[in-house]
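Lecture 7 notes: from sequence to structure.

We start with a single chain of 408 residues. Read the sequence below before looking at the structure.
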Amino acid sequence: MASISAAAARRIALAAQGFADPRPTGRVDARHVRRVLERIAILQLDSVNVFSRTHYLPLYSRLGPYPRALLDTLSGHSAGPVRRELFEYWAHEASLLPVELQPYLRWRMARADAEAWGGMRRIALDKPQLVADVLALVESDGPVRASEVGSERAARRPGEMWNWHEGKIALEYLFWSGRVTAARRINFERRYDLPERVLPPAVLAEPTPTVEEAQRELVRVSARALGIATEPGLGDYFRLPRAESKARVAELVEAGELEVVEVAGWSAPAYLWPAARRPRRIRARALLSPFDSLIWFRERTERLFGFRYRIEIYTPAEKRIHGYYVLPFLLDEALVARVDLRSDRQRGVLRVQAAFAEEGVDRAVVAAELAAELLVVAGWLELGGVEVAERGDLAAALRSALDLLAAV
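Now the structure, written as tokens:
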């Protein structure tokens, strides 16, 4: 079994995710976007918009400022023309991913009655006529919004995140089962329609692979995107059931498509994609969404970077350690800081509500690089400047660095 140093594994992982390449210096177009998507495959969706919609951020982290309308056009998140190259489904979580992967997720669609969330399963079992009526409405009137399929509102129960009415739950069951899909999102609200009116005919005509074939392909995609990973990390990329993840990884090892290696300091075996790049160093600078595929599997983030990260959106304010919407800051091969960011759209500024440096970093260097990156991202978000609050051990140095840049 080959041995790899922890630093080499970190560089392999960063390169697989697209951070070994410099950002484009000219106009960013659809070719650049496609190249990133070919690498990482999945853009996770999330409703929080305090800084930016999260699915826009992984492309920014790798490409720098790019026209967000490009992604809207490829995904249908626009009222304008659509060039359907991405579709929405439960991949990691709710995600955008290339339409070519739709056949490899049909096994999950077929398991809706067993694996969809409890409310969806219950409504399919208890109110099949409602589900049939909602599907008929989509067939006749689609694309439709959830508000158009029912008005009854159930009382919110303690611990529930969303207050979905039964029509919405029926739509979500149909979405999970693949009988409807997202035609568009306008103001982040889904419009549901039939797959045959949304997805390319060639994709729908693809034969349905066996469960085993489909899951092996998803593990291949994960392995290419991660470069090197433990088995749980490979399975988590598409949220495969653990027993099936173990079986598919073992099959790819047996077939010679994955190489088992030992990484110094890792307590679990690692699996290397044989074609993964092995750069000698990484030069990168990026703010990372909490839902970026580089860091979304928190055990892997800690293993690769020694960086313990927990999102605190749902933590009571008085118990938060770093802030509400905290983005890790990548500098070269390390996660060196974390910043709580908010886009104040009324005032036209990017607010740094807190800034913290990681232990052992050169704070002056980190502050200077972070200040430069914040100015770039503020411009991309069409915000006029950056304001830094007092909170955090990096805040003062960051404010000084921004002042120096403003004076240049």
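The chain is about 40% helix and 15% strand. Keep this in mind for problem set 3.
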